[in-house]
Design brief:
Elements lengths: L4 E9 L4 H14 L3 E6 L3 E3 L10 E10 L3 H14 L16 E7 L4 E3 L2 E3 L8 H10 L12 H6 L7 E3 L8
Antiparallel strand pairs: 1-4, 1-5, 2-4, 3-4, 3-8, 6-7
The structure holds adenosine-5'-diphosphate and magnesium ion.
């Protein structure tokens, strides 16, 4: 029997019903064979990063124990993105997407292949990744930078705004 590995997956959406897309993504990850979701962060509304002018994102992070290989997990993440209407062939790079699932960490593995880089190359520079990841994995150590997620978050220079998302507004 293969020993499961703890993977962390970043979840994001900025098209349509963002919360529904993100929750559907988390549920679909939980239904994958050989995979068990063990934690989910709070949700954050985040200012887009990059050149493209687009709507704010909803971002979160999921921890899951999986016996899938990293590439099989990537394939399934792409499939789940597609079930929420994402069409990579027609979208602008870095542009709006109904669902984005990024493999942030895969145990302490370091992977560098044409279609998969783990740890995710830009995760350490981004508040929209580190804030939710810190909710569920504060003491996990980035296998390349050798610093904890909390430490990376504390030293972050990213000035893009993020704010906690309340699915049900307080006044409702
Ligand atoms: P991004 O999430 O960086 O804005 P995309 O979601 O459009 O960009 O993904 C572009 C490509 O990035 C994917 O097709 C995938 O092959 C590649 N990729 C490389 N490393 C990863 C990773 N760790 N997680 C998800 N995708 C990755
Ligand atoms: Mg992606």
């Amino acid at each position: 029997m293969t020993t499961p590995i703890r993977a962390y997956i970043g979840v994001g959406s900025n098209v349509g019903d963002r919360f529904a897309h993100c929750l559907a993504g988390v549920e679909a990850l939980g239904r994958l064979g050989g995979t068990r979701v063990v934690g989910c962060s709070r949700w954050y509304e985040t200012e887009p990063v990059g050149e493209v002018v687009q709507a704010w994102f909803l971002n979160g992070a999921v921890g899951s124990d999986t016996t899938l290989s990293p590439h099989d997990l990537l394939t399934r993440c792409r499939y789940i993105e597609g079930t929420r209407g994402r069409d990579r062939a027609r979208e602008d790079p870095g542009g709006p997407r109904p669902l984005d699932l990024d493999i942030l960490l895969f145990g302490d593995q370091v992977i560098s292949t044409p279609d998969l880089h783990v740890p995710h190359p830009r995760m350490a520079d981004r508040a929209f990744v580190l804030a939710p990841l810190e909710d569920i994995a504060p003491r996990v150590v980035h296998p390349v930078l050798k610093r904890t997620i909390s430490d990376l978050r504390a030293g972050l220079a990213d000035t893009h705004q993020i704010r906690l998302y309340e699915a049900v507004p307080r006044s409702a």
